[in-house]
Structure formats: C-alpha cells, structure tokens
Amino acid sequence: MRFAATAAAMLTLAVPAAAHHGWGSYNAETPMTIEGSIDALSLQNPHGEMTVAHEGAPWLITLAPLSRMNARGATAEIVQDGRTVKAYGYPKRDGTPEIRAEWIEIDGQHFELR
After folding, report:
1. N or C: where does the chain have the smaller number of CB atoms within 10 Å of the terminal CB?
2. How many other CB atoms are found less than 10 A from the CB of residue 103?
3. Which residue intervals of 1-114 are DSSP H helices?
C-alpha cells in the first residue's frame, strides 16, 4: 500500500514536468527583437506568454516564470494588454512565430527575464 501511494505521488509530480518544453527548440544564434502592442497576455506558471503583432502576423512571446518576473519588477501592473512592448529573444527553430524572450521593455523600463 505504501509503495502504491509513493508511486502515485511521484507520477503526479512528474506529469507537469513532462508537459513543459525544453529551450533547445529556440535558436540562440539568430536573436531578434519584436516591438508592438500586447494583443493577448497570460501570466501563469510555468511561464507567462504574450502575443504581439510582428510583420503582419501574431507572434507568441514566451516570458519567464511569474516569480522571476515579479522579482525583477515586470509585474501584472506593468505587463498589460494594450501596452507597447519591445522583446528581445530567440526564435523557434521550426519557423513557428514564437520567441523566448531574454528581456522586455515596457514604458522605457527594461526587465531581464533570464
């Protein structure tokens, strides 16, 4: 019985970790900068995300975990829908319109995310 409970607890902890993607799918050799209005925003764990129009297409910007964003000042009061953001990061290797942001700027404030 104790083994079954331990196994169930381990599986519960392993599922969220398995669902998270690795950073190897982003190309650190070709960094880019995107600037535009935040069209959609999700500030949740394991990391935040926002969508910004870039060259006529919506781009997903993967942010840092909320605890890191808050600790560095990029709080929900600053990172909001409709605000203009500049994001520097690494694009997806497969051509999907997505970047992993290394830093963002909003209203002249610079926030390091990594």
Report:
1. N
2. 17
3. 2-19, 66-71
pLDDT of residue 48: 96
Query: According to the model, what pLDDT value does residue 103 have?
Result: 98
What pLDDT score does 14 carry? 44
User: Closest by alpha carbon to 84, among 43, 49, 53, 47?
Assistant: 53
In this prediction, residues 69-93 reach a mean pLDDT of 97
C-alpha 94/C-alpha 9 separation (Å) is 35
User: What burial class does residue 62 get, using C-beta atoms within 10 Å of its C-beta: 0-12 exposed, 13-18 middle, 19+ buried?
Assistant: buried
Distance, in Å, from the CA atom of 52 to the CA atom of 60, rounded to the nearest integer, reads: 7
Do strands 109-112 and 98-106 pair parallel, antiparallel, or not at all (unpaired)? antiparallel
Using a 10 angstrom Cβ sphere, with 0-12 exposed, 13-18 middle and 19 or more buried, the burial of residue 5 is exposed
Q: Evaluate whether 62 touches 97 at the Cβ level (below 8 Å).
A: no
Structure tokens of 54? 């870039």
Q: Residue holding tokens 């650190």?
A: 28
pLDDT tops 90 at residue 60: yes
Measured in whole angstroms, how far is the alpha carbon of residue 78 from the centre of its chain? 16
